[in-house]
Amino acid sequence: MSPQEGMKYANERGLDLIEIVPNANPPVCKLMNLGKYKYELTKKEKLQRKHQQVVVLKEIRFHPNTDVHDYEFKARHARAFIEAGNKVKATVIFKGREITYKEQGEELLKKLAESLSDIAKVEQPPKMEGKWMSMILSADKSSKKKTTNKIKDQEK
Questions:
Q1: Where in 33-86 does DSSP place strands (E)?
Q2: How large a percentage of the chain has pLDDT more than 70?
Q3: What is residue 99's DSSP assignment?
Q4: Using one digit for the tens of pLDDT, what is the confidence trace for 80-118?
Q5: If one looks up domain 3-41 in CATH, what number appears?
Q6: Pairing mode, if any, of strands 16-21 and 87-93?
Q7: How far apart are the C-alpha atoms of 104 and 100, rounded to whole Å?
Q8: What is the Rg, in whole angstroms, of the alpha carbon atoms belonging to the chain?
Q9: pTM for this entry
Q10: C-alpha span between 51 and 77 (Å, rounded)
Q11: What is the three-class DSSP state of 132?
C-alpha cells in the first residue's frame, strides 16, 4: 500500500507507522506503538547493565627484601580480594640498587602465585616495567566449582 494509506491505517488504530527496512523495494514498514517500544528497549538495557559484573584491579606492592610476616599479611589481603571477585596486580618495586636483585622479586611473585594457586590463576606472568616487576592474578573459575562441590559433599 502507499505511504499515505499506511499512515491513515495507523492513525485509525492509534499506532505509529515505523519504517523497518528502508532499502527494500518496496520499503518494509510496521505498525506499533513507538513510545511503548522505546520504553521496553530502555528497560532491557537497564536490566543488562544491572546484571553486568564489574571487575576491579587491586594492587599489592612488595619490595625484593619483604619479610615473611609482611608477605603473609599481603598474601591474605590478595586472597580476600580474589575471593571478592577482583583481580590482583602484585608488584615488586625496586628502589636504587635493589634492581640488581630481580631474581628475588621474581621468586617472591612466583611464591605468591603458588600460595594462591588454589583460588587464582596467573593471568599475566611476572614482567619488568622499568623499576617495577608486576604480575596479574585473577579468580580461577574451575576452583570455585571444586570448592562448592566439596562443601556440598561435606554437608551430606
A1: 57-62
A2: 91
A3: G
A4: 999 988 999 999 999 999 888 899 999 999 999 999 999
A5: 3.10.20.80
A6: unpaired
A7: 9
A8: 29
A9: 0.60
A10: 27
A11: strand
